[in-house]
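Supplementary Note 3. Input sequence used for the single-chain structure prediction.
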Amino acid sequence: MPLSNAERQRRYRQRLKARASGAAVVEQAQAAVERAIRALWDYHERPSPSGIAWSDIDGCRTLEAYRSELERSPTNLLQACRAFVPDFSGLTPDEALAVAEVIAIADVLRLSSPTRVPADVLFPPSHG
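The predicted structure, written as C-alpha cells, is reproduced below.
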C-alpha cells in the first residue's frame, strides 16, 4: 500500500531529526563505506593504466571477492582509498567523492588533520 503524503512527510522529518541528533551517524558511515567499496570496485572493473585487467593483477573477479580482500585487514579499505590521494586520478567525480568521504571519516576517527582534497578533483569545472 502506497504511503500517504502525510506519512512520507512524517518519515522525512524523523530522518532529518535523527541526522541532526547524530543518531544516524553509524548508518551514514556504513553507507559511505558501501559507496566507497562500490566506487573502488567500479574502478577495479576498468582496465589498469597498463591495459591489464585489475582482476588479473589481484585475482579478485567478483565484488564479493574484492570486498573479502578489503575486509581481510582493518587497514585495507583505507589503504585502497588513500592510494588515490592527492589527485584521485582514474576516478569519476562521484567515485572520488565516495573515496574522499571514507578518508575524511577515518581522519576524524583518528583525531588527525583532515586529508586535503582539492576542490577541482571532486567538483571539476564543467566543459562547455
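Residues 33 and 102 are 6 Å apart (CA to CA). The radius of gyration is 18 Å.
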